[in-house]
Amino acid sequence: MSSRQERKVVRGARPFLEEGEEVLAAIIARPRGWTQSMAGSLSVGAAQQSRAYGAAEKAEFRLTSPMALAITYRRLLCLEIGSPIGLGIGGEVKGLVSSAPVADVDSIEVKRLPLGKRITITVRGVPIALEANALADASGVSDAFNRAKATARLMST
Questions:
Q1: Which domain holds residue 122?
Q2: Half-sphere exposure of 33 (CA within 13 A, CB side)
Q3: What is the CATH number of the domain that holds 82?
């Protein structure tokens, strides 16, 4: 984990984990378009957010904003959090919004942008666009997912 906020998510997620499950990596994210909405491009941002929520609904993986996206060896989790203020302040985990078995997650792709990161999670064949700040360890979540997926394949053979 690279930030205090991400470490806080790992601790806060414990009540929502199954027996023997642990969070491998986590980030704070929002549906794609949130930053544009806050920066004044309300119509563009709202349209992007609407697409992200619609894709998530189609994939049967609910989103919230803000959220923590966490990966375990078993599941991808969307956790509701309070508003993160910065420097690890705020952002307490409030509850489990949704989860998908690692087997139902096709990929987690990260693209670096000038002011943040675009994360595309593909669940049950449906790509869902998210965004995170530039300091978020989105690559750590992607790497943890790849390890979890490889472990699941090995265990199924």
A1: 4-156
A2: 15
A3: 2.30.29.30
Report pLDDT for 153. Answer: 78
Number of domains in the chain: 1
pLDDT averaged per 10 residues in sequence order, the chain, 157 residues: 76 96 94 62 67 94 94 97 69 93 97 91 97 91 95 78
Note the pTM of the prediction, 2 decimals. Answer: 0.86
Structure tokens, 14: 């414990």
**How far is Cα 23 from Cα 157, in angstroms, rounded to an integer?**
24
Q: What is the 3-state secondary structure (H, E, C) of 77-143?
A: EEEEECCEEECCEECCEEEEEEEEEHHHEEEEEEEEECCEEEEEEEECCEEEEEEEECCCCHHHHHH
